[in-house]
Amino acid sequence: MKFAHISDLHLGMRIFERKIAEDQKYILGEIVKILKKEKPDGVFISGDIYDRPVPPEESVDMLNDFLSQIHSLGQDIYIISGNHDSPERIGFGSDILHCAGVYVAGKYNGKLCKVTKSDEFGKINIFLLPYIKPSFVNNLLSEEDKIPGLDHETAVRMALETTPPDKSERNILLAHQFVYGATRMDSEEIIVGMIDAISDSVFDDYDYVALGHLHKRQFIKREEQVYCGTPLKYSFKEEKVEKYVTFVQMGKKGDLDIYDVPLKPLRDMKNLRGRFDELMKDKCDDFLRIVLTDETIVPYAFNRLRERYPNVLKIEYENTKDFASLIKTDVRMKTKKPEDLFAEFFEKCTGRKMGEDEMEIMEEVIH
Fold it and tell me: For residue 346, what pLDDT band results from cuts at 50, 70 and 90?
């Protein structure tokens, strides 16, 4: 059997407050074309379907149309919720959808959703693990059994242990977690201290792990643990990152063929750098971050550049004055006390000065 693997659609996302619904609708159409050509038996969607828990109506309609097109191709669909999704909304109607070959795991309820398919080599068990936080697992335990300080890895292990795989059969897992050793992009939600990170050994019992959460196509320590990445670039640091639909062909136990089919967006994301006059000689329809190297501020640069680059999203300056300012700032920071620097940071973030109680807490922490 063959399966397609996509993830992190982030429908409804805005980049620098710019709607990209047209680009998302286009890339979903490109995915459908690839699915029609490749003819997989099923499609994995590994979380972060939407960009926020309450998605706009336009995004809901877009997903509905996308899933309807896949279903019309006769392909099963497997969906889990991600950290950006509302588990309850993603899981709405899941019992009814199962009858139509659309398997959805929205909210973790103490047991994994397991779907079993068969081919000439025997059974293939597909396990659906929605995004797991320690609180999701602890909340299902009795007061006596709750684990203080439960970490992400232990929580995921406990969730997987509720429905252990038969190691003699072929097993696939959909999961939406951050695995140690993976590369992050700056468009992702990052938890301070990486307390959400788990070990790849958690997934040792599965022949293929269809991971979501990280936006770059990559695998961790073995090629069968795959982050397929986003279908679109969602930050300018992804300029040179290619996007794909990943496919896995399941043969007999231990025999997998994994390959990627490239995705071409309606508009790319690029970085441009140069002097204003030089840049105005060219034009481009892609999403752009433009770095101007002019020594003086160019009047109305943003609006004027949009005449040639209608989708410019951000303009920055990089010149000798900026470098001098950075050096000056660095020197100033080195001469100030940590508590003074934090007080300035607090006021900038909140719009008010720190109170006496807050100052005492901060000084105690620094000490």
Answer: confident
